[in-house]
Amino acid sequence: MTPVLSDKATSFLMAKPPPPPTFKDKIAKVTDRLLSKHAKQALTDPGMQKWGINNLMRAAKRYNRWRYGEREKKHQKAYDKKLTELMEEHGGPGHYPPKMVMQDGWAIDTSMSLPGLDRLLDEAGQVARERAGKSHTDVQQPYFRNLMVYEDVMKYPSWLDFVTSPDVLATAIHYLKTIPVLSKTRPPGIRFMESNQNLDPNPPGPFSESQLYHMDLHDQPLVYVLVLIDDCTMECGPWHFLPASVSDRAIKALGYQKRGVRYRVTDEEMYSVIDPKEAQIFAYPKGTVLFIDSSRCFHYGSRLSYKPRLQMMYAYTSVTRCDFSQTFMPAFPYPVKKTDSRLRKMVLK
Ligand SMILES: [Fe+2]
Fold first, then answer.
1. pLDDT > 70: what percent of the chain?
2. Where are the annotated segments for Disordered (predicted)?
């Protein structure tokens, strides 16, 4: 999603000018430009098959470590040496280690008690009443659309407050073993997605794109935080996913992410190597939260969502991702205030 900024948003974000570029920044601008054209092509289905997803991810990680390695070291040092101090400054004592720990690549919080959840549900609900079921500007697939516009992150503070709240952040940090960043390119770090088959002008054909099993390749590991903004039942096209251990078996059996192998996996292919009963289904009441490593757990969703599915989707990655998206996409500018904690600034900057 490329944000379109209003004058008010631009002046807010430009209050503190960025530091002047270093010599390395100037060189990196050139290497980014040279890579960007190939990077876009490599992320297409033929590109991924030609090069192999594994190889592309390894190459991108190496490049990003050269490009952003200094910042990566800062984030790692903060995790290794200052985590308790940073967490306490951010949210007071008692948030780390987290109450919710991801196991086998995932965890589901059904408590409805995560701080800030009520406000998030309320503010996202307002937007849903205003925009859901209508045509949108940010259409990922005809049946899968982002209801969010850039100004929402300032108009509805709960959207960022929730994902940066101490308990949610603690779960992501504990799993990733570093201080992560909220993605600024692909996938968007924050999306308010509506899956709605009724918005698809064409009758449903075979499942395609994110309706088929795949694993995200933007980083590994990474953490998605999915929040159900309304009740999600089987008629809503809920997320289906395979735990990491089951996914590992499937990767081996299918040769997934190797050269010549497709990014998307059909049910027929998947269920020839694992038992369909091993799939977990994220069909839960409004306010349920799924933490999942979508780069380690096969997943699909938005199948025949005749009852609309409303889901807030957040993505945490490391500083040095496994894709080249930063070479050709503008960074999403999260609003950061002077008074924000050091931890929140690290995550959003
Ligand atoms: Fe995905």
1. 94
2. 1-21
CA of 299 to the centre of ligand 1 (A): 6
Q: Please, what are the domains in the chain? A: 22-348 (2.60.120.620)
Q: Is the pLDDT of residue 9 over 80?
A: no
CA distance 339 to 116: 19
Which of 21, 89, 43 minimizes the C-alpha distance to 187? Answer: 43
Q: How many CB atoms lie within 10 A of CB 15?
A: 9
Is-cis flag, bond preceding 97, omega within 30? yes
Question: Residue 227 in contact with residue 312, Cβ under 8 Å?
Answer: yes
Joined tokens for residue 313: 């989707």
Between CA 117 and CA 124 the distance in angstroms is 10
Ligand 1 mean position, distance from CA 214 (Å): 6
**Gap from CA of 22 to ligand 1 centroid (Å):** 35
Give the integer Cα–Cα distance in Å for 35 and 147: 31
The whole-number average pLDDT for the span 214-222 is 97
249-293 pLDDT, tens digit each: 999 999 999 999 999 999 999 999 999 999 999 999 999 999 999
What does the pLDDT read at residue 16? 61
Residue 3 pLDDT exceeds 50:
no
Distance 20 CA to ligand 1 centre (A): 36
CA of 230 from ligand 1 middle (Å) equals: 21
How confident is the prediction for the chain on average, in pLDDT? 93
Of 328, 321, 248, nearest to 58 by C-alpha is 321
H or E element at residue 112? none
Residue 232 backbone phi and psi in degrees, to 5:
-120, 120
CA of 6 to the centre of ligand 1 (A): 30
Query: Is pLDDT above 80 for 18?
Result: no
CA torsion sign, 151 to 157 to 161 to 163? negative
Q: What is the pLDDT of residues 113-129, one digit of tens each?
A: 999 999 999 999 999 99
Ligand 1 center from residue 49 Cα (angstroms) = 17
CA of 215 to the centre of ligand 1 (A): 6
What DSSP string describes 249-261?
HHHHHHTTTSTT-
